[in-house]
Amino acid sequence: MDTGVSVIGSGQVSGTPDVLRVSLGVEHSAPDVASAVARVGERTDAVMAALRGQGLEESQLATSAVNVFQEYREPDSAPAYRASHTISVETKDLTGFGALLNAAVDAVGNSLSLHGLQFDVEDKTALLAQARELAFEQAKERAGQLAALAGFSLGSVTAIAETYQQEGIPRVRLSASKAAYDSALNITPGDHTVSVSLEVNFSWA
């Protein structure tokens, strides 16, 4: 069995977000599956057109999920089927959320729902590099202290395992209705934090 010490170090670095990702839902219920699917497709197209009208490109829009299911109804009630699409929106305009939401609401009214939004850093390379450095320094310091307490000298690194995390994504669901939101709706991005944990194994000198 190898001898030495294994420790975990953590590093956390914050950066300024430069991209906003929004998840919108479009839903419709109908007595049959075909009608539900057809209608939700039309409404999704309407939302996409409204968002393009706000200056978004095709590459910034995507249908990320499609669902169809039978709704629960009381016994002896006529069956109903609900179809839904999830639209993923990505924009560099961090202040334009209200205008985008209003455009989508105007297109389909109460068929729209807001699943969530996330401010993010598109390129995290530099942040991750800094977080790794902090994590390794912390691991080395802890290992050195443990080695001294055990009466050993710290040797070379024999293995490293990395775990990467980022801030949790807030998830909200709001029913949208026409004229419900101010186009100047103020959404503050704050800082985006990435965290790296390193499990580092050191041998004894």
From TrEMBL:
GO terms for biological process: DNA damage response. InterPro entries: 26kDa_periplasmic_antigen, SIMPL/DUF541. It comes from the Bacteria. Pfam families: SIMPL. This is DUF541 domain-containing protein. It comes from Kribbella jiaozuonensis.
